[in-house]
Amino acid sequence: KGYNYLIDSIVLVKNKLHGKNLKLLIAGDGYEYESLNYQIKCNNLTDSIELIGTVENIDAFFSKLDIYVQPSISEGNALAYREAMAYGVPVIATSVGGIPENITDGYSGYLINSKDTKAMAEMIIKVIRMPTNELNTIINNARIVVLEKYNFNKCVKLINDNYQIVFNKTPFKK
């Protein structure tokens, strides 16, 4: 998933921000838990990074966040960063898989190269220091993107149209 790069970037962020109160929550359970926990301890980040496991209450989780970082090495089209966008949390994500289809860098979020710890740290610092009005513009743009692309009625119509094509054997429209 790339969380090891995110943890390395937090080391850089903490050094740059000189002790600013910073808390990283890493959600999810998986095979990387032990290695991430080891990396956190080795970097003396136990006060700054918490592995919270499976998130049961999405509303409560996103309400705690100031920034959402999707550090993926590879990705199909993850749901979590789109949820963050819908919840009004600014998103920093790697430019892999389907992510750039939903995030326009500097408009609806921020894109960085995969595995680029330095760029990730710099972008986190940039968003932390960003003026509120600029951040609110990004947040509003992101919400609009998600609402327009993933509107329930629009999705139902698309599915219905696809069924019509299959069952009526109507040729695809060009």
Record the SSE blueprint:
Layout: H1 3-17, E1 24-27, H2 33-42, E2 49-53, H3 58-63, E3 68-70, H4 80-86, E4 91-94, E5 110-112, H5 117-129, H6 132-149, H7 152-168
Parallel strand pairs: 1-2, 3-4, 4-5
Helix pairs in contact: 1-5, 4-6
Q: What does the radius of gyration come to?
A: 18 Å
Secondary structure: number of strands: 5
Query: What is the helix/strand order?
Result: HEHEHEHEEHHH
Strands ordered across the widest β-sheet: 3-4-5
- The amount of beta strand, in percent, is 5-15%
- Residues in helix, %: 40-55%
**Overall 3D shape:** globular
Low-confidence stretches: none
Helix-strand category? mainly alpha
Taking all residues together, what is the mean pLDDT? Answer: 89
Query: The biggest beta sheet, please?
Result: 3 strands, parallel
How would you sum up this structure, described in words?
This protein is mainly alpha-helical. The protein has helices spanning 3-17, 33-42, 58-63, 80-86, 117-129, 132-149, 152-168, and strands spanning 24-27, 49-53, 68-70, 91-94, 110-112. The strands form 2 sheets. Strands 3-4-5 form a 3-stranded parallel β-sheet, sandwiched between helices. The chain has a two-stranded parallel sheet with strand order 1-2. The chain is globular. The chain starts with a helix and ends in a 6-residue tail after the last helix. The mean pLDDT is 89.
